[in-house]
Structures are given as C-alpha cells and as structure tokens.
C-alpha cells in the first residue's frame, strides 16, 4: 500500500498490509477523490508514451 497517496508506488512509499486494510484505505481514498490527481498523471504519462488504455 502507498504510505503517501500523492506519490506513486515505489520501494520507499510502499508497505505491506493485509488485503482488507488495503481495500478499505483505497476505497476511502477514491471516495474522497485523493487518487484523482495521481490517476490523471498516470493516464497522461501513458498517452505520451503511446500506450493504449
């Protein structure tokens, strides 16, 4: 799970948690809109690199 939602997955920003905790936190982040900025950056980066979503 990402410790800081504003950053992507990396070794420094990732911790291991039980799946149910991961799901609960990610659902809460999505409901609050915290993941939107990172999702837009991720999508834009893939479009620049020619990947299809």
TrEMBL record:
Pfam families with a match to the protein in the record: PBDC1
Gene3D superfamilies hit by this protein: yst0336 like domain
Domain Polysaccharide biosynthesis stretches: 1-39
GO cellular component terms, semicolon-separated: cytoplasm
InterPro entries hit by this protein: PBDC1-like_dom_sf, PBDC1_metazoa/fungi, Polysacc_synth_dom
Protein name: Polysaccharide biosynthesis domain-containing protein
Native organism: Oesophagostomum dentatum
